[in-house]
Each structure stands twice: as structure tokens, then as C-alpha cells.
Amino acid sequence: MLDLLEIRKAVVSELSSHVNTRVEMNNQKASKKEYPFLGYQFTSPYIEGDGYGIYTKETSGDDVEVTRTTFPRLTLSMTAYDMDPNESFTLAKKAHAWFSFQGYDYLKRNGLVVTETGSIENRDTLIADDYERRNGFDVQLRTTEQLSMMLPAIETVQIGRSEE
């Protein structure tokens, strides 16, 4: 089963270390935030993979365990926040570089592959009398999901003709 909490932990801890600032989930109740920081949210937490997946079977006594392996994707929206537009862009660029290149091996070791890193876009917003400078991008990750079920053995079969 896809575990967003584990994905979140893996991405946030290493990304925060790489960009040397805090990374926190967007749309949370909090006191006044100190700049700079990176915000994230799962905009599409589960995009079903193509096809039906890969099925494997293992016998366990008379029963059969069937496992389906699929490769779902998820979209993570990253936004860099600051009061200075250049600093906001620089932070977004560092995060973008980590997803598109520097974090590749780390993500792969944690069962994630970046399939697409979008363009960095302006996401500024007016707060009271001043602009909060925001730059961000979307990144699509692919992972592996396995679902299993045990199928009992077929004990008897009735074979016969129907009289129609």
C-alpha cells in the first residue's frame, strides 16, 4: 500500500538538509512564519499506473498467494517562500536541482523515481500591504506498490450440463 507519510519523511528530511532551510507542509495552521522556507503539498497523491500491473503467484500448501505490483505516480507541488524575489527564486532553483539531479540516488534508494520536474513559475501573492515572494514547481514521482491476497484451493468442481 502506498504510504504518503513515509514518502513525506524521506523527501522532507533530505531536501531540507540539501537546501539548508526548513521544509513544511502547506496549508497548515501555524504562527507567523519566518522566511525563507519551502512549502509542499501532494496535489495528486495517487495517479494509477499504466496497464494492469505485474501479477505473481506463490503456492502456500494448497492455497495460492497472488501479488499485483503496480507503479503509481504522485504529484508534489513545491513552493519557495521569501520576501525577496531573488532569494525565493534561488531557493526554488536549489530544490528543483535536487529533484532533477542531485537527489536522484537518495530518492531511488527510498523507492522513488522522478518522472518529471516542471518549470519554476512565479507564485507571488499579496499579503496585506506587501508581496510574499513565491516561486515553485511541480514534481512527479513514481513508486512501487504491491497488493497481495490469498486464494483458497478449489476443493471440488461440479461438471454437468444444464438442461435448457
Structure description:
With 164 residues, this protein is α+β, with helices and mostly antiparallel strands. The N and C termini lie far apart (46 Å). It is elongated. The mean pLDDT is 91. 24% of the residues lie in helices and 42% in strands. The protein is built from 3 helices and 10 strands, in the order H-E-E-E-E-E-H-H-E-E-E-E-E. It has helices spanning 4-19, 85-102, 104-109; strands at residues 23-25, 37-47, 54-60, 63-70, 73-82, 113-117, 121-122, 125-127, 130-142, 145-151.
Salient structural properties:
10 strands, single chain, 3-stranded antiparallel beta sheet, 42% strand, alpha+beta, 7-stranded mixed beta sheet
